Amino acid sequence: MNITNVLLSVGIIDDIGHFLGNIYTPSLFLFTAIGMFMKILSIHNVPYMIIGLFCTRKFKPAKNNHKYAVLIPARNEEPVIGNLINSIKKQDYPQELLTIFVVADNCTDNTAKIAQELGAICYEHNNPDERTKGFGLKYLFEQIEKDYGIQSFEGYFIFDSDNLLKRDYISRMNDSFDAGEKIITSYRSTKNLTEGWIASLYAIHWLRSIRQRHRTRSFLHLATNIQGTGFLFANEIVKDGWKYTSLTEDRSLTADCVVNGYEISYNNDAIFYDEQPTSLKVALRQRLRWAKGHLQAFGESGWGLFKNIFIDKNTKWEKDDTWYRFLWRTIRHRFMSFDTFAQLLPKQIVTAFKWLFWNLFLFPFTIYNAGGQMYIFRNGTWLSKLVRQFTGNVTINLEPGWKSYAICVLLVIWMRIFYRIGMYLANIWMAIYIFIIERKRIQKVSFWKKVLYCLTWPIYDVIERYVKYIALFKKVEWKPIPHESKITIDDIQEN
After folding, report:
1. For a Cys staple, 379 with which of 207, 356, 419, 432, CB 3.0–4.6 Å?
2. Average predicted confidence (pLDDT) for the chain
């Protein structure tokens, strides 16, 4: 009886193996469709990079100076907030048109005291159940509306407490605002690039974003993305208050503004500096929060962006309009929605699902069914092409059966690892490109540090990939990032 049961079990398992092997080929239609969809979403990446190499939008000097509020959400930022406020007060922009607001958000140190001593208007927000930066800004806008009126200021800057502003920063951003732009982001540099390879990962990432996203999108009058700090927006964006309270309020703001038809511009001449983490533990914690916030933002705005690609309810017929001007505006808005949707879609998760389901799960059953030939060094990267120049097409012939199934599973995993190694090495060139093209704007770094930073740079994208997988299942809470740098704007400008 036991032998009979075992034989029946083996037969059932064999039947399941044959069934899964047989559905692999028909299911490739869906696999191909997903792959084509992902390629369509990235079709503009190479043109963006080429345009960003040569072009960015330039703004004429402003004819008018506008009245701004400068907002600083801060939690236990006693070591750095004074340096930021001092850099604001050293701007070449008329100080009577600038009002500095600080929200001391659940602080337990002297952040509020220092801000007030330096002339900032400070509100203290103490609510342990509202711990994200977005909640602090929500509270701050509520207080501004109550005491001043949101419409009292034409525009609002937002900075993190560790930021420092180049002396002409606000003047350059005012050039963009005076040109009619409603939302503008700026050039994000790093003030502690020399403090280790972890800080360098972030520094190179921000500069990559400038070259691959901001410059091109601004030049083409599209919508780039807000990245947490160093941006300006018109009061109409927050006429009903601040509503972005997720783990990554910047992504939510970006998506919502694009859904509502706003262009998001970039000023390449407005430079600010911020502090990057130097601890791997802190960096991983921050990246996990970003990943979770990315998923939340996609859940909140992904469908709206996707609908906007096909149904444009924001582009209105204007007085004295022509059909071709209207057509151009609606095409531009639809493309902005497509572009932002493509950026917000968690591609790493879609790609991982494709690989797990078709390559690792289904494909080995086709080998179990019929056997086959598998290549060892064939995955499309330049590394695989280089290896094949020396080894040729190394293959393994597998006969049908469970043993071949197990070997196939191991080979699929190996090929994925080999592919990732090739992608890691190829990505080093991005860091080299950044150090060459941005050499006049970044901190001076020794040659050997540049070598180290280039070799370790691809770790940034490796971390992004795996924290996305973790964030899909893990509950994530907002925690502050410690800032300790003593660097001032005078230190940077002297160098």
Report:
1. 419
2. 91
3-class SS of residue 77? coil
233-244 in b/e form (b: 16+ CB < 10 A) is bbbebbeeebeb
Distance CA 33, CA 294 (A): 24
pLDDT of residue 18: 79
In terms of Cβ atoms closer than 10 Å to its own Cβ (0-12, 13-18, 19+), residue 417 is exposed
Residues 381, 374: Cα–Cα separation, whole Å: 17
Question: Which residue shows structure tokens 């007030």?
Answer: 116
Kindly list the distances between the CA atom of residue 243 and the CA atoms of 40, 238, 327, 349, in Å, as whole numbers in the listed order. 32, 8, 32, 28
Name the token pair of 185.
């982001």
Predicted confidence (pLDDT) per residue in 352-408, tens digit: 999 999 999 999 999 988 888 888 887 778 888 888 888 888 888 989 988 999 999
Residue 8: its pLDDT value, please?
A: 45
Distance (Å) of CA 411 to CA 165, 364, 366, 375, 417: 52, 10, 14, 9, 10
CB 222 within 8 A of CB 336: yes
- Pairing between strand 231-234 and 68-74? unpaired
CA distance 122 to 100: 8
Stated as kind and residue range, the H or E segment containing 261 is: none
The C-alpha atoms of residue 368 and residue 458 are separated, in whole angstroms, by 37
Number of helices (H) and strands (E), helices first, in the chain?
A: 18, 10
Q: Residue 214, SS3? A: helix
pLDDT the model gives residue 7 = 43
**Segment among 1-5, 8-12, 95-99, 193-197 with least mean pLDDT:** 1-5
Residue (of 265, 72, 296, 46) closest to 165 by Cα position:
72
Place of tokens 């929500």: 138
Element (H, E) at 452: helix 447-456
Q: Yes or no: say if 270 and 159 are a contact pair by the CB < 8 Å rule.
A: no
* Contacts of 288 by beta carbon, 8 Å cutoff, 6+ apart: 467, 470, 471, 474, 476
The pLDDT tens digits of the residues spanning 6-18 come to 444 556 877 787 7
- For strands 231-234 and 155-158, give the pairing: antiparallel
The full length of the chain comes to 495
The answer to whether the beta carbons of residues 256 and 344 sit under 8 Å apart is no
Overall pTM > 0.85? yes
Please tell me the distance from the alpha carbon of residue 228 to that of residue 231, in angstroms, as a whole number: 8
pLDDT band at 432 (very low <50, low <70, confident <90, very high): very high
The predicted pLDDT at position 6 comes to 47
Beta strands across the sheet bearing 265-274? 121-125, 98-105, 68-74, 155-158, 231-234, 183-190, 265-274, 164-165
Compute the distance between CA of residue 458 and CA of residue 130 in angstroms, rounded to an integer: 35
Nearest by Cα to 69 from 164, 168, 145: 145
Q: What are the structure tokens assigned to 175, written together?
A: 């050039």
Average pLDDT over residues 79-108: 96
